[in-house]
Amino acid sequence: MTIRLLPPDLVNRIAAGEVVERPASAVKELVENALDAGATRIEVMLREGGRSLILVEDDGAGMTPGELELAVERHATSKLPDDDLVHIATLGFRGEALPSIGAVSRLTLASRKRGADSAWSLALEAGAKGRPQPAALAQGTRVEVRDLFFATPARLKFLKAPRTELGHAEEVVKRLAMAHPEVAFTLRDETRVLFRYPAPGGDLVGGPEAARLARLGAIMGRDFQENALALAAEREGIRLTGHVGLPTLNRATADQQFLFVNGRPVRDRLLQGAVRGAYQDFLARDRHPLVALFLDLPPEAVDVNVHPAKAEVRFRDSGLVRGLIVGAIRHALAEAGHRAATTVAGAALGAFRPETGWGGEPALAGAGRPSGFFQGNYGNWCGGTVPHRLAEAAVQAFAPLEGFDRPSARADAASETTSPDAQRYPLGVARGQLHETYIVAQTADGIVIVDQHAAHERLVYERMKQALAETGVARQGLLIPEVVELEESAVARLVKRAPELAELGLVLEGFGPGAVVVREVPAMLGPTDVKGLVQDLADELAALGEALSLKERLEHVCGTMACHGSVRAGRRLTQPEMDALLRQMEATPHSGQCNHGRPTYVELKLADIERLFGRR
């Protein structure tokens, strides 16, 4: 075949395939152009998910008629004042995206330069450029993209349903809005306004940081805003800011993790891996935290041109970036102490609210409950007639309590209710144990319900980590070494990791091809199921593989050991034991959640309890 030069319109259509994959890609390029132009207000309107119309209007610097003509030429841009491709501080390349979009659509540009007397417009259809014409427009730029991909039918038929394409475009605008809280964003379709994020007022208390958190709350939800920890760290010219959610606020997917580099939304494996590493002490592998991280670093320290759509970046020193993220997140989580997410208490209160009262009477206005609550073994008590025996039980229950009228009994009850300890301790004083699993404590302004196993598991885990970092975990020899039979592959894994396990206080060695013998265990675990512990460790090591560092593997193994060495559900605790557990929780970092991200306690305020009973 004969080699030939491709015509410019075909070159532009090929380039469009790299830059514009779907309507959301065009929206991203156009909104980034508006941000680079210094806009403080950006409005986006889509019709049929962007297939028939994409309209982006801003109040940025605007363009002259001559600049309009250059803007739709390939390799013409205002983003590179010189030939330096390293120190790039802008988001998009106006002269690269616009001709690519114009090659596969009917594009109209209208713009008015700041300080100019009039506006001008220019049309581009399938790459064919018209002449600038006078237009009516306030300061800024308006871009209309009609009939996207009409010039490339093959690409058009691969577009998804309008609702799906609209969702992708909405995600793009939201990410850019998160990165630029100082800019007002509006997104609408042909029927309604999907969202409107106003710019912060000049009198906002807290300044830029408060504006960013408010914008994050508008996009990620009120739960995140109420349970977010602020980050601020800097190392060797790299600055990290943002907010991360408490571990007890987590999701089944990682779609609520937002990462930005120099104001640019990215999906970077290094950054996502750093977030996982920072939370590995707090969440199970199938749970994901909510984070919004903003990295600012010198342009020469990051390459933003490794991906056509600039969705990925490459760092000059990836180890430095990862260490900064992991260290900053862990420091913020440590500062949170035993705090748990407010969503835990909210879910508990929701479970307490029945839809109907006893005997079918309507419940309090606004009260709701989860589907299926008060079903199963509870029968039909919530919504049916009151059982006949209940009347007899009520008579007995409300009879005068024998001996309660004695002055000494009244004094004892009063002193117990107004115990000063409940005022002094954040987690209060233990008042009882439910089902030999949950500790109920009274605080100054409410109650706390503690999962004794989950709480003690976190305490043991933190003690093991501290001992490992300082002097090593103390061992306790078994009077009779225990032989544990396993599969040969499991034995091989344990024997290979025997030196690491010995650092954690577990001494074992091979005992033939299908067993190991355990000679010493960590002293802090106390009496434990050695066989179950070893089997779980073998499974844990198989899941971890060689991907993690030694320190990370040791921490995972610590978590497994802590689970086996913790107070079990079903064990009756004395009053001093319950109070001791509460005091240790108050003094231990991260005690608000167990090693798997589940809450260790639920706090209910007295005001919320009073609302449940209609007292407020």
UniProtKB/TrEMBL annotation:
Task: Identify the CDD domains for this entry.
Answer: HATPase_MutL-MLH-PMS-like, MutL_Trans_MutL
Highest rank taxon of the organism? Bacteria
Provide the alphabetized UniProt keywords.
DNA damage, DNA repair
GO CC, sorted alphabetically, is: mismatch repair complex
Q: Which PROSITE patterns does the entry mention?
A: DNA_MISMATCH_REPAIR_1
Task: For this entry, list what GO says about its biological process.
Answer: mismatch repair
Pfam families listed in its UniProt record = DNA_mis_repair, HATPase_c_3, MutL_C
Q: Which InterPro entries match?
A: DNA_mismatch_repair_CS, DNA_mismatch_repair_MutL, DNA_mismatch_S5_2-like, HATPase_C_sf, MutL/Mlh/PMS, MutL/Mlh/Pms-like, MutL_C, MutL_C_dimsub
Name all MutL C-terminal dimerisation domain ranges.
430-573
Q: Where is the DNA mismatch repair protein S5 domain?
A: 216-334
Q: Per UniProt, what is one GO molecular function of this protein?
A: ATP-dependent DNA damage sensor activity
Which HAMAP family would you find in this protein's record?
Answer: DNA_mis_repair
What family classification does the UniProt entry report for this protein? Belongs to the DNA mismatch repair MutL/HexB family.
Describe its function.
Answer: This protein is involved in the repair of mismatches in DNA. It is required for dam-dependent methyl-directed DNA mismatch repair. May act as a 'molecular matchmaker', a protein that promotes the formation of a stable complex between two or more DNA-binding proteins in an ATP-dependent manner without itself being part of a final effector complex.
Recorded protein name is DNA mismatch repair protein MutL
Q: Which gene encodes it?
A: mutL
